[in-house]
Amino acid sequence: MPNPEKITEKVFQSPSKYIQGPSALKNAARYLSPLGQRPLVVVDNIVFEIAGKTLLSALSTAGMNPTRGAFTGEASLQEIGRLADIAKSSNPPCDFIIALGGGKTIDTSKQIATDLHLPVAVLPTTASTDAPCSALSVLYTPEGEFHKYSFFEKNPNIVLVDTSIVVKAPARFLAAGIGDALATNVEAREVRNSPNFGKGLPTAVSVAICSKCEEILFQYGQQALEANKAQALTPAFEAVVEANTLLSGLGFESGGLAAAHAIHDGLTSLPELHHLMHGEKVNFGTVCQLLLSNTPAETLDRYLKLMVSVGLPVTFEQLGLKEVRDEDLRKVARLACSPGETIWNLDVVINEDVAYGLLKAADAVGREYLARTSKA
Ligand SMILES: [Zn+2]
């Protein structure tokens, strides 16, 4: 049931500063030095080669004293504890945290900063999720299953995006980010009477941000993907990076999530889908949400067209489910309807049978769309 506590305040929250551009990493010290002088830089080995060396040398040149914390790949409590120990045992101890990498690096770093009561700067190297700006982390088990949402008092102090690095990532990352960002307005507009992640109702600015996010994706999503494939920094690419990172981040946090993300959380329980990115699973959830919202056929087609044009999955087959077992779908539906799930922000009657039906219906709608458009 939405808003059981009858909250009447509106709340909007965001990072203190957002920086985006093709030389942001080289100029990072200018923006990061107010946070401290001895950052723990959480970065995995691959990203270290692509961007970590540039960042560390830029920080050192500016007189800062960074410590590298090698991230091993899972946003789990174990990994968070291990990296926090590195920050504490550095001599003198680190005085702020830098996350350099993708969603899991970022979620891990935000939790470390919270546990150690330190500021955090988030430097995403892909535009694949809307995690960077938010005051929450999604934590996983060491095996990669959804564990829980972790909520923080504060948003990251700084989010800094170097688009010359982001454009080098495979286009699949940008597409996944488009999937995550496309869910933002689809979900937020259904939960306006339900408290958001700031435990308040959405303000007019968050409604406007969600709608602008969607507008950019429809206008420039496909164009940006093509630019990414060519590793070309274009205005369309910059716009979609901003939509995926800033607009979607502010939009979902101060707007609210609903069925698409609850279905995503259920889908993480299927080992066959562990190869998928967050936004890819969310995208299938968005089709479910659109069906639950009784979206007219013409509008639904518009969404499916964008999804398919950027290679986002709209059927079980495209998700990678070779064999669709009924007990798996039941499990996904059950988890999507767990107590505390974002699906309960919706003001419609939902139970596990409804969620199960949505999964099957979304696949059917996706297959029908693909069959119809491939003939044309
Ligand atoms: Zn998401």
TrEMBL record:
Write out the entry's keywords from A to Z.
Answer: Metal-binding, NAD, Oxidoreductase
Which Pfam family would be a valid example here?
A: Fe-ADH
Database matches in SUPFAM superfamilies: Dehydroquinate synthase-like
The GO molecular function terms of this record are: metal ion binding; oxidoreductase activity, acting on CH-OH group of donors
In terms of PROSITE patterns, this protein maps to:
ADH_IRON_1
Ranges where the Alcohol dehydrogenase iron-type/glycerol dehydrogenase GldA domain occurs: 15-163
Record's InterPro entries? ADH_Fe/GldA (IPR001670), ADH_Fe_CS (IPR018211), Glycerol_DH (IPR016205)
Q: Which family does it belong to?
A: Belongs to the iron-containing alcohol dehydrogenase family.
- This protein is called Glycerol dehydrogenase
| Organism of origin | Gloeophyllum trabeum (strain ATCC 11539 / FP-39264 / Madison 617) (Brown rot fungus)
